[in-house]
Amino acid sequence: MNFKNPIPTVDIIIEQGDGIILIERKNPPHGWALPGGFVDYGESLESAARREALEETGMVVDLLGQFHTYSDPERDSRQHNISTVFVGRAAGEAQAGSDAQKAGLFTKNMLPEPIVFDHALILKDYFNWRENGRAGVGQLKP
User: Fold this and answer.
1) I want to staple 103 with a disulfide (CB 3.0 to 4.6 A). Which of 18, 47, 48, 94 is the partner?
2) How many C-beta atoms surround the C-beta of residue 99 within 10 A?
3) Cβ distance 85 to 68 under 8 Å?
4) Integer angstrom CA distances of residue 126 from 30, 110, 111
């Protein structure tokens, strides 16, 4: 029997002051995204989130907790990925690394375009949660 399963990934909303860190991707799909990537075999989601944040932004992130898991099979046109999104904080200036060509700090009202994958939806949910404490999304308290 041949099984085909979704692939686990992580994304990290890195808070810094009133903004969040986004990266501009070097590889397709091109555009801006949350730092994140694939979970390695034998690696916890939390370890993957910290590793991906460090690889893509050069920042050591203090994870505050899980925000939400996004599982729409169409969220990534390359394959079916399931992403667990974390919220964390970091100090210092983000430096593009790994598969990022740029990294920057952005506010809700000054987001870059285009935002790839379903990260615009994730950011919408995040900012709604920060402003309204929307029930049903995430395990964190604003």
Assistant:
1) 94
2) 15
3) yes
4) 22, 15, 13
Tokens 């900012």 locate to 127
Tell me the CA end-to-end span of the chain in Å, nearest whole number: 46
Nearest to 13 by CA among 136, 142, 114: 142
pTM of the model: 0.91
Q: Which structural domain, as residue segments, surrounds residue 44?
A: 7-132
Among candidate residues 94, 98, 85, 83, the one with its CA nearest the CA of residue 20: 94
Tens digit of each residue's pLDDT (9 = 90 or more) over 97-119: 988 999 999 999 999 999 999 99
- Is 142 inside any structural domain? no
State the Cα–Cα distance between residues 68 and 1, nearest whole angstrom.
32
Kindly report the CATH number assigned to the domain that includes residue 77: 3.90.79.10
